């Protein structure tokens, strides 16, 4: 039997995506205030989502509130924030960066090339 992916949802935070991908943080902040939520100062690095603060344990209620209010016509989606997914994305982005750097310098001396390969291997070992 295969293992299943188990998300690690952030406590007291949700993600909201607006229909207009050019939504400003000022708009997002004011939008949240109008329905009782505070926009986080943290930037979400994996798309155009905004992070909103919620009461811990009330994340699903907040999602429903964003999706079902008189302003919901502006909301594309609202969901729980999965910290595990974000960590995996960051890990893969770092790995891609390391490999790209090596690929862009393919003619490095053998010892430096080998050293870079070992750095990649050591990086990957942290995530067994």
Task: Explain what the structure shows.
The longest helix has 22 residues, at 83-104. The chain has 128 residues and is an alpha+beta fold. It has four helices and four strands; from the N terminus they run E-H-E-E-H-E-H-H. Helix 3 packs antiparallel against helix 4 (110-125). The mean pLDDT is 93.
How would you describe the shape? elongated
**How much helical structure, as a percent, in the residues?**
40-55%
Which structural category do the helix and sheet elements fall into?
alpha+beta
What is the level-2 CATH architecture name of the largest domain? 2-Layer Sandwich
The overall strand count is 4
Spatial order of strands in the largest sheet: 2-3-1-4
Question: Can you identify the CATH class of the largest domain?
Answer: Alpha Beta
Q: Can you tell me the number of structural domains?
A: 2
Order of helices and strands: EHEEHEHH
How is the biggest beta sheet arranged? 4 strands, antiparallel
Task: State Rg.
Answer: 20 Å
- Uncertain regions: pLDDT < 50 for 5+ in a row? none
| Average pLDDT level | 93
Percent of sequence in beta strands: 15-25%
Distance between the termini: 19 Å
Number of helices: 4
Instruction: Indicate the CATH topology of the largest domain.
Output: Alpha-Beta Plaits
């Amino acid at each position: 039997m295969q293992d299943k992916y188990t998300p690690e949802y952030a406590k007291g935070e949700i993600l909201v995506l607006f229909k207009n991908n050019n939504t400003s943080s000022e708009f997002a902040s004011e939008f949240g205030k109008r329905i009782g939520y505070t926009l986080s100062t943290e930037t979400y690095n994996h798309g155009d989502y905004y992070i909103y603060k919620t009461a811990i344990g009330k994340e699903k209620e907040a999602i429903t509130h964003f999706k079902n209010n008189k302003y919901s016509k502006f909301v594309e989606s609202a969901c729980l924030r999965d910290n595990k997914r974000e960590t995996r994305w960051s890990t893969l982005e770092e790995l891609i960066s390391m490999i790209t750097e090596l690929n862009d310098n393919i003619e490095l001396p053998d010892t430096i090339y080998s050293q870079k390969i070992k750095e990649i291997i050591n990086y990957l070992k942290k995530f067994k």
